[in-house]
């Protein structure tokens, strides 16, 4: 069931979203050669704690997971697409890093992700990340009252496929509200004019996941969480929490 949020609830979700934005900004600023993924997780945890927020990631255990997630961020490096567990790995020059972070505050959830390169970026990685950001922007632009879910999916998929990238199969965005994952699912590829009508008060986490090699398949690490490209190519992940309103899409996790 899809819950339509009131304008007051959307305002409250914006406050949560800004905590997520602050955490991602802090992590991006701290990420440098020699910094460990665990240190980045601690940085995000400090931001959440300072805001009085909790993490919807920490302790989260969906049906596929063998163990609860042990951190407040997902840190996925190079060929890891999503759900990477922060560990003692220290960042190296040229690493492509995707950070996903969420927060709970005042009873509402927020969720967002960024991809970036540490140190000197290869042109191929820059293009991959820029395309992921364009795909996210296209999906947000299509998130308007009167469109359908397929319009968001088509907008994202058109950008990704047009650049020659794969789209991670079986995964996409989701509704968000009191819980991090709610109905409806938000595909990253689809047909325009199809699917659920978009209505004022829907709040969606829109999140393209691109694979540089062009394929859509992935594999799961022994940890049961980290999902990697099957061909070893690099991946990028971007995400925003977006409210659909009569005035147009409102990005609740927008970063300065």
UniProtKB/TrEMBL annotation:
Gene3D superfamilies: Creatinase/methionine aminopeptidase superfamily. Substrate binds at residues 83, 181. CDD domains: MetAP1. Its cofactor is Co(2+); Zn(2+); Mn(2+); Fe(2+). A divalent metal cation 2 binds at residues 111, 174, 207, 239. Its EC number is 3.4.11.18. Keywords: Aminopeptidase, Hydrolase, Metal-binding, Protease. It catalyses: Release of N-terminal amino acids, preferentially methionine, from peptides and arylamides. It comes from the Bacteria. Residues 12-246 form the Peptidase M24 domain. InterPro entries: Creatinase/aminopeptidase-like, Pept_M24, Pept_M24_MAP, Pept_M24A_MAP1. It holds the Pfam family Peptidase_M24. The keyword Metal-binding applies. A divalent metal cation 1 binds at residues 100, 111, 239. Binds 2 divalent metal cations per subunit. Has a high-affinity and a low affinity metal-binding site. The true nature of the physiological cofactor is under debate. The enzyme is active with cobalt, zinc, manganese or divalent iron ions. Most likely, methionine aminopeptidases function as mononuclear Fe(2+)-metalloproteases under physiological conditions, and the catalytically relevant metal-binding site has been assigned to the histidine-containing high-affinity site. GO terms for molecular function: initiator methionyl aminopeptidase activity. It is an enzyme of class 3 (hydrolase). Belongs to the peptidase M24A family. Methionine aminopeptidase type 1 subfamily. Monomer. Removes the N-terminal methionine from nascent proteins. The N-terminal methionine is often cleaved when the second residue in the primary sequence is small and uncharged (Met-Ala-, Cys, Gly, Pro, Ser, Thr, or Val). Requires deformylation of the N(alpha)-formylated initiator methionine before it can be hydrolyzed. This is Methionine aminopeptidase.
């Amino acid at each position: 069931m899809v819950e339509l949020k009131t304008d007051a609830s959307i305002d409250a979700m914006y406050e949560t979203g800004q905590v997520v934005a602050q955490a991602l900004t802090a992590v991006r600023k701290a990420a440098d050669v020699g910094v460990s993924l665990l240190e980045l997780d601690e940085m995000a945890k400090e931001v959440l704690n300072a805001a009085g927020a909790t993490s919807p990631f920490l302790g989260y255990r969906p049906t596929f997971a063998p163990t609860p997630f042990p951190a407040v961020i997902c840190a996925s490096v190079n060929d890891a697409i999503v759900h990477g567990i922060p560990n003692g790995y220290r960042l190296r020059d040229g690493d492509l890093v995707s950070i996903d972070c969420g927060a709970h505050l005042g009873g509402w959830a927020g969720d967002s992700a960024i991809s970036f390169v540490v140190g000197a970026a290869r042109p191929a990685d820059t293009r991959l990340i820029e395309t992921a950001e364009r795909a996210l922007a296209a999906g947000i632009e299509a998130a308007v009252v009167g469109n359908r879910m397929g319009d968001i999916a088509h907008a994202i998929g058109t950008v990704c496929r047009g650049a020659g990238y794969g789209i991670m199969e079986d995964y996409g965005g989701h509704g968000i509200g009191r819980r991090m994952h709610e109905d409806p699912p938000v595909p990253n590829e689809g047909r325009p004019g199809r699917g659920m009508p978009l209505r004022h008060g829907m709040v969606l986490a829109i999140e393209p996941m691109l694979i540089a090699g062009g394929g859509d398949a992935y594999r799961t690490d022994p940890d049961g969480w980290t999902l990697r490209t099957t061909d070893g190519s690099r991946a990028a992940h971007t995400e925003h929490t977006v409210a659909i309103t009569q005035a147009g899409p409102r990005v609740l996790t927008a970063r300065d």
